[in-house]
Amino acid sequence: MTPALAVEGLTVGYAGAPVLDELALTVAPGEIVALLGANGAGKTTLLRALSGLTAPRAGRVLLDGADLTAVSVEDRARRGLAQVPEGRSVVTELTVDGNLHLGALWRHPGRAARRAAVARTYELFEPLGRRRASLGHQLSGGERQMLALGRALLARPRVLLLDEPSLGLAPRVVAQLLGVLRAAARDTGLTVLLAEQNVTSALSVADRGVVLSLGVVVADAPAAELAGDPALRHAYLGF
Amino acid sequence: MDRLVFLTATGLARGLVVALFALSLVIVWRAARLVNFAQAAVATVAVFAAFAVTGATGSFWAGLGAALLAGAALNAAVERGLMRRVPSGSPLPGMIVAIGLVMVLQSALGIAFGPRHRPMAAAFDERPLVVGGVPLLSPYDLFVLVVALVVVGLLAWLFNGTSLGLQLRASAAAPEVSRLLGVRVPRMVTLGWALSGAVAALAALLLVPTELGLNAHSADLLFVHAFTVAVLGGLDSPAGALVGGVAVGLLVSLVTGYLGAGVAPLAVLALLTLVLLVRPGGIFAVGEVRAA
Description:
heterodimer; A: alpha/beta; six-stranded mixed beta sheet; four-stranded antiparallel beta sheet; 10 helices; 39% helix; B: mainly alpha; two-stranded antiparallel sheet; 11 helices; 1% strand
C-alpha cells in the first residue's frame, strides 16, 4: 500500500550542522504516529519542511505517492496536507466563525455547505459554539487550540501535522483534543503526525512512535512497545 | 440657516470622497503594513487616463472605467515590481520607494501632458438644486454622494460578506497561517493593492472636475486630507476612515464657508493635533497597535 506520507533523505540546515540529516519516515493511511524527542531534536523543523514552510537542502516529501518538492505551501494545503503550528495559529483579528470558514474554503464549495460544515464543528467542540462571534484574541488557550484543530479538520485533510497541541493546556482539554483525533482517524481514515513533548499522552493515542534525536530517527516502534521500554525512555525522552 | 444646510450638504459629499481615498490607504495598510505615499500620484495618473479616454471617445463612463482599470493596474504593478522587493523589517524603505515613485510619476505626467491645468468637465450639472428656496446639492454632488455610498457599501460587503474578503483579511493579519490554510497570500496582497488603486482613482476622479483641477499634482491635497483622516480613524479601521472622512469634509466645508478657504487647512491640522494628543492610536483604535 502506498504510504499516506513518505519522507526520503530529507536534509535541512547547513552542511556540517544539519537540523535534519537524511531523514526517512513513512506513515500509513489512517495511522497516528507520535513524533517524539527532546527540544532541538528537529520535530518542528520536520513538520515545517513537510508543509513547505522550510525549504530542505535535499530529499523528497511524498503525499500519497506524489512528490511535493515543487509544490507551494498553499497547494500542499489544498491537496490535503494540513499543519497546525505550535502556539498561536489562530487568526486573532478574525472571529471564531471567520477562522472556521477560512478552514472550510476549499473542501466545502458554496456558502450553504460551508455554513453546515462549520455548524458540525460547533457540535464537535461545544465551547467554540458559545463563542462564535468572539475575536481570536479573546479566547483562552484551550479554546484557541480547539479552534486551530477544528479549523484544520474542516479542510478534510489527508494528513494532519500537529505541533505540540498539548502545550500549556489542562489535562482534561488535552484528553478531549486527542479523543477527537482518535475518532477522526478511526472514522475518516485521517493520517496524523503528532509532535509532542507530552510523551505519555501522545503514546496513549498513537499507533506508533518515532523518536528523533539530532535530526535522525533513533527509534521507530509500536506505541505500546515504546511506552514500555525504560532504556529508550531514559536515553531519548528524559524520564 | 440656509447657508448652514448648504455647507453641510456639500461637506457631506466632499467628506465621503475623502473617506473613499482614506479607505484606499487603509486597504493598503492592512494588506502590506505600509502607508502608500504614492497613492495620490497613482490616482492622478489614473485621472489622466480617464481624461485621455473621455477625450477620445466622448464618453464620461468609458473614462471612469479607464481610471479604475489604470489605478488598479498601476498599483498592482507597483506592488509586484517594487514593494514586494523592498525589505519589510522597517517602514522606512517602503516609504522612501513610494516617495521616489511620486517623483517619477509626476515627472512623467509633466512630460506627457505639460504643466498647465487641463479642463475637465463634470459629468452632470454643477449648479445647486434649489429646494423650497434653499440651495442644496447640485446634480453632480448627488452623483458623487451616491457613488461614494455605493462603493463604501460594496467594500464593506466584499471584506465582511465574501470568502474573497475573508482571505484578504486573513492574509493581512496572519500571512503564514493563511498560507497553511491554502490561501494564496501573495496574490491577495497584489489584489489588495489593485483594489486600493481603483478606489483612490475613483475618489480623485470624482473631485477633479469641481475642486482639484487636472494637473500632475491634482490629488496631492486629497492625499493630505485622506492621510489625516486615516490617522484620525486609525490606519487599521475602515469605519474610522469613513467617520473621519465625513468629519473632515464637514469641517473643511463649514470653516471655508464661514471663515474663508485659507483657514480650512489650519482647521484640519488643528483637528489632527487634538486627536493625536487625546487618542494617539486614532479614534477607533482598539487596544495596542499591532506590530508589523
